[in-house]
User: Fold this.
Amino acid sequence: MRLSENPVLTKELRTRMRGTRAYWIILAYVGLPSLVVLITYISYTAYQSPSGSQAAFQLGKVFYSTVFTIQALLVGLITPALTAGGVSLEKEQRTYDLLSLTKLPHRAIIQGKLFSATLFVALLLTSSLPLASLCFLLGGIAPSQVVAAYVILLSCAFLYGSVGIASSSVAKSTTNATSAAYGSILLLFFLTLPLAVMGIGRSFGAGSPGVGLTALNPVGAVNSGNLSELYYGISLPAWLPALMLNCLMGVILTVTAIHRLEYPRTDRSPLLRLLCAGFAAVAAFFVYGFLAPRSTAAGGVLGRSVDSMMAVSILTLCGTIVIAGIFATGDRLTAAGSLLRLIFDPRRLRIGDAASGFLYCVLLVLLCGAILYIGAGTFPRTPILKLILLCLAFLWVIGMMGLWLSMAARNRWSALATTFAFSSVLFVVPMLTLVNLGNGPKKPTTLTNLLYLSPIPAALELSGQDMKEIRSPQLAFGNTSFLLVTSVLYCSAGALFLVGAERNRRRQ
Amino acid sequence: MPLVELVNLRKEYKNLVAVKGLSLTLEPGDIFGFIGPNGAGKTTTIKMLATLLEPTSGIARVDGINVADDPDAVRSVIGYMPDAFGVYDDFKVWEYLDFFAAAYKVPKVDRPGLIDMALELTTLTVKKDAYVDELSRGMKQRLCLAKTLIHDPKVLLLDEPASGLDPRARIEIKELLKELKSMGKTIIVSSHILPELADFCTSVGIIERGEMIVAGPIETIMQQVLGGRVLEIRVPDIDRQKAADLLPAVEHVRSVKLIGETLRVDYNGSLDDQSDVLLALIHGGVRVQSFAEQETDLEDIFLRVTKGLVA
Assistant:
């Protein structure tokens, strides 16, 4: 069905603009930044003595920053509210059954709701054009910067809208859906806020170090319209990675929402897996592309070489754990044959069950590892290989545990929650050792070796070989031996989980 | 080929069996009344037929299509009206129907004509441009029925279509269903208000705790359950005792009850022999004011066959 023929889209657009509510929202959306701009102007002229074109340029930049920062916040505030009730409200109003029995595919329902919300935000953004044009009047801002800000805000609207619609398709009530949507967006906002702060500093020439993913935060995004970064020697706009990641994440959430609603369900596992792999690859591509070459340059952009590799290592490992939990749990297996054969059969990769999820995660780690290896530049590659090995060992234990719990637990959610809890314990407990050791005497003890039970400190240990002065003492027996010990430990635990899963399967 | 066919249909929830091995066959043009107390399994059965719930076991076919195999194909031949439904309040009446017509992929050029027809059938033409939230509950019910008809389905699944309506609105819905019957639609209608169904159903099924206790044409069920028919006889006050004494002696009369001013006679003889009752009264000198066979009394059947286990 073409989008223009989608009755849900027509309905949403028609009813959203009916009555006075939409006009009040537009008024508030334009009124609030206008008021702030006015106050900014008054305070600027009161404390500065403007003269000449440079002062006008400066004021133009301040106006730009003010207008788009407020818009970024407003988009984050308004968009989830437009979509969080998309499905749950239909269920609460008892119109969902009637709608789902028509010939309209569930895809069209979700698309209609999401696009109408995004289009409404586009309308709000358009309504702020006269305000943005003030920047041109004063100068100091390039048209491409304004266009970039609008594009990134629209991509944020799409992402936030899809967070809302995904919450709505899962939650039982609109209240829950709204809380979940705002909670997720706030988490995303505050997690990426440090990047934004650094980006804003760099954008205004304050000399603070910049990071390539500034635009992941909407406030950072609108202020990074004039930035460009070098990726593998190619200069690209700084907001491009965030734009791609926002859109990919939005599509993943939208597909998940459709999958959640559908009956009878279409198997979307291959599509979802492809999208997730795409997301991981794009993230790895940009992160490693930006960080790794700089890590070797003495006094490079980041200054401290270990910081970048730490970030890369942590990102890779956390990503591994998250995806392993999600993909290696699922409904009970019905396929025949031994579990070990099912797990490693590459032909089953297109099937969305828990057994094939492990191999998929392995491929994902190898993909990220390969990008990291290539993007590492002149950084010593042995630690990277060790890191990939550790990731795989950790993936094995988490994956097998997920698989075992899929057979033993009552439902998928309890299997997933337990897997996450287990991986959190593996992460956090040895991390505490790291903190304690950091405060204690800086000499090697056997206790230090416990660091290798958690992949994060182990990765830090691997990536930062010259970190003695800032962190805990070195390992008592050297990192390679304990990397091997930890890997063997993880592999044995994973094998035990596999045996448990096979037994449970046979019993059923 | 039967239009609707249920074979040992079963639906289980965690700790509850909502429908236990239900079987039913309906031919084109049949109007089936689904009777049962609240929680008996009527809505669950209708929802399984409407493809909103997946049967745990058994087969449900509509127009020869298994609902579990191809729900999308089933959806295009059924029109479903739930017991509790919502409407889009910020829509006009014609917009509401146009929305559903578009959702059922009715070609754009055909929609205005179909909307007018549906509105005419449900006597809502004058409200075409009114907002849905301005309609009364009865009108909303008729609007939902109009929506159900917009794609011209072969089978209508109506779950408690007249619940919560005032007597006038209920009569209007009943008249509408009769109209649909004359149009040749196959209808499954559930209700726990029994007189609603007796007028126009060709057959009924009584369900309790997920089990179909009895099903078939009303006459047959009457014969099965009551074992005969009920005659209502009115006589003057002074002759009432004499009539009550005479009647038990007449052949095929099983019992006589005085309810208000009417004598209710449980008679299991043939239709030809029924006149013997009247003859006996007249010969006995009783002045008969009225003599009639009681209208189908579904309530009586219902009370006899159900145990009041769910309410």
